[in-house]
Amino acid sequence: MAKRANFTAERIARFQCEPGRQQTIHWDGKTPGLGLRVTAAGAKSYVFETSLCGKTLRITIGDPRTWSIGKAQAKATELKTLTDQDIDPRQLRSSRPDTTSRCSTPCMWTNLFQESKRCKPSRA
Fold first, then answer.
1. Sheet strands (E) in 1-124
2. Strand 44-52 and strand 4-5: pairing?
3. What is the pTM of this model?
4. Percent of the chain with pLDDT over 90
């Protein structure tokens, strides 16, 4: 299991990619789903990761040079609030507001889901 540590400016600056890996994600101990992705080349970005419709959802929040820790934590909390309501935040960025996805367990599928196949019902 990945280690979690509360993000501080010093920790963010020190985090590195694990040797032999293309990228490593370091997880914030304070904010669920918030991580710092560090690539082998040294690039860093805040990410949010959770599960939605039984699949892993990872969204890039932004570069720590332009996003403060507090703002990244607030954004991750906002994204977590949406996904806890079975709303896919990626759809909210779309220019078509009618494409907001929802899924639930047990599944109550709308025609939108069946047509878009964004969330597929599990087979029992």
1. 4-5, 23-28, 34-39, 44-52, 55-62
2. unpaired
3. 0.74
4. 68
Q: Are 26 and 6 in contact (CB under 8 A)?
A: no
pLDDT-wise least confident of 28-32, 59-63, 77-81, 105-109: 105-109
What average pLDDT does this structure show over 80-99?
A: 79
> In which residue are the tokens 């080349």 written?
41
The angle at the Cα of 67, spanning 38 to 69, to the nearest 5 degrees, equals 80
Residues 89, 101 contacting (CB under 8 angstroms): no
- Cβ 29 vs Cβ 2: under 8 Å: no
Hey, what's the torsion of the CAs at 41, 47, 52, 56, to 10 degrees? 20
The SS3 call for residue 59 is strand
Structure tokens at 114: 């069946």
| Residue 67: other Cβ atoms inside 10 A | 16
Cα atoms found within 13 Å of the Cα of residue 105, Cβ hemisphere only: 9
